[in-house]
Predict the 3D structure of the following.
Amino acid sequence: MQPDRGRDLERELRELGPHVEYPPTPDLAGSVRSRLEAEDEAAAPPARGPRLWWIAAAAIMLLVALPVFASVLDAMGSAFSGGAAAGGGAEGGSVAESGQQGAADVAEPTQPPLAMESGASLSAGSGSSAAACASPEPILEARPARGASGDEFSIRGRYFVAGFSVCDDTGTESDPSAQTVPARDVRVEFLQGGRTWELGSVKADKGSRIATQLEVPAGARPGRATVRATYGQGPPEAPYGRTSAEARFSVLE
Amino acid sequence: MAAYEDLVRGHQAVAFRTAFTITGEAAEAEDAAQEAFVKVYRTLDRFRSGAPFRPWLLTVVANEARNRRRAAGRRVGLTLRAAEHESQTLAPLSPETAVVAQERRTELLGAMEGLREEDREVISLRYFLELSEAEAASVMGCARGTVKSRLSRAVGRLREKMMEAQDAAG
């Protein structure tokens, strides 16, 4: 009698299995992938992550510098040849004039090889520049990653780099932390279901890290939310764009 | 990375539910399962080729979940609910039968809440998550024989709880 009742109960439990309601399974595949990518990027040496805007900045600088450099070269060349023709070139005015003339004369044949040379140095230069100046993407973590409205939680972030005070483009390895300019105005927001709460702004420390204590907004509803930290990259007068890092958060009842 | 993402997608439900069985809290379970998948990825090179992946994964998930439960320093009040909808694969039940069946499920889950943590865990792993004995042993960190004996005792205690509840109801 007893074993039969035991078996009945086992059968009932087996049948109950599919009816048991578990909390919905989160998208772990996506979150695991994001985390692995972020960790890989953070762990990779800075040389591995050339940033597009650094390359673009180097290219713009080169474009600006190129005509000036070509003029100077031409002027120097003309000063020698023009000066000799003018019998020593004792007068500065004539040197300058012949220099301008020379530049106009030799612009066509001189520029292509110069451009080729510069092109070569651009790719090498931007490569090493990126090697010295690139920084991993910022990462953000909320602890605890859950809490009810009004609860306190903290955030910690790394790689909040606004720019680089020294950009070594000699191709030599150097300590990136010594060159980075920490982000000054990192805006922290709490996002949920299309609503956004401004939680304040923080300043990254010397190591480009942020850490602060925050509070879950009063109007947040139970469920998923996101904490986002956003800042402008590049120097304050010319931020090349905005970068943000996000952390997941569960709002409890 | 894409292949691993597929692997995670294929196992995320059982990993999350296993973690939930141990922590009793969805957010903790999510963190534990995510951490486990990351750790497993980092140690894939140590994985013995040809060995089944699931028991290994579930062992890591269970360790992570236990660590979190320990850190939180609380007992697990696992609350499971019986879904009110009937399985679509079965023949539709009459309204009366469906109500009786739902009541019985609620009664069973209610009795389970009165069990010890270890008893709830072994019943959930074997009957609700349908883990094999070997997988349940990996999760519980014991031998397969121990799973069998623990399960038998847990079902016995559940039966007693059910009878107590029936007696109380008169």
